[in-house]
Structure formats: C-alpha cells, structure tokens
Sequence to fold (206 residues):
Amino acid sequence: MFEMIWIKLGILLTGFLYAGLLPYTIRKGIRHVDIDLEKFTLSFLSNKELYGKRYRRAYKRLLFAMALINYGFFWLLSVFYDLGEFTGYMRYMDYSFASLALLAFVPHNIHPLSFRHFGQSLLRVIHNLLAVLVFLTIPTLIIAFQAAILADQPILGISGMVIVGMVILLTLASIIARGLNGLAEIVFINGIGLWGIFVTIMTFIH
Fold:
C-alpha cells in the first residue's frame, strides 16, 4: 500500500517534469536568442559557433536531464502497471533513453559535409540520426505503453492512444506543410507533454 503511494508520487513528480520542463525551458530560451523557427530546428541552439558555449552547455544538460526523467517516468509506469513482462516496452524505454542521452553529447554544427572536415561531418550525421531516433522511439514507447495497458485499462489505453495518434498526425502535418523545423518540433514536444499530463493525472487518481 505505502509502496504504491510512493510510486504514485514519483509518477506525479516525474510526469509533470516530463511534460513541463522541456517546453518551459525552450520558451524561456528562445526569448533571448535570434532564431527563426520556420527555418531552423531547435538543435541549432546547441551550435557553439552560433550561440556560444553557454547555450551548448544548457542544451546538453537539458537533454540529459530529459533522458533521465523520461526513463524514470516510464520505469515508474512499468512498476505501477506491472509491465515487466512486456519486453518490447522495456526495450523501447532503453532505446529512448539512449538516443536522448547520446543526442545531448553530440551537438549540432553547420560545417558542410566533406572529407576535409571529416570529424565535424561525422558528428553532424550522427546528430541528425540521433534526432530522428528520438522522434521515432518516444512515440513508439508511448504506443507500446498504451498497447500494454489496453486490456486492463481500456479507457486510459484508448484515450491515450488517441492523444498520441493526434500528436503524430499534427507533427507530420506540420512537417509536410513547412518542413522539419523548430515549429514542428514544438508541436511534437507540446503534444507529448499533453499526453504525459493526461497519463499522470489518470494514474494518480487510479
């Protein structure tokens, strides 16, 4: 009984951090920099040549913190809903943590892809691949969670699946309309945050 209370409190804390930390920090950060989100992605904020070491450090710390919070939130959900037997869910929990954590330590750069700048070119390619992995693994992890609880928690399972489905569709629509840019990333981040708040509240009142 007391263990479940502590788990619920942990979900409440990590859930609201998961939903609010990244959107709040991004809103606060872009107020102080000149960045066109219709042309550039949020990864540009980690570019030392454009925004200096301060923003690169902040970007690294924020993404690594999000990787830890993401893992903690979904791990607590797995304990609360007893999802240890769902190997796909547990595997994608590891994947999402790894992709976010690695992305934190591979900053963006604008060096042209060439063998003359092989090191920087390689880092740029790795950064882009990791960013794509983040976009893929987090929705997949959420869908795996929703599918895992569907039989025992049909209301939460179906409603959560609808929310994440809408987030994916809105993000894709934004990418199709304007390309992959900071605005599309904000749609994705805010949508995932909304899903996180919904699941946190539904779990807490369970």
Summary: DSSP finds six helices and no strands in the chain. The CA atoms of residues 19 and 193 lie 4 Å apart. The chain has one domain: 2-29+39-204. The mean pLDDT is 90.
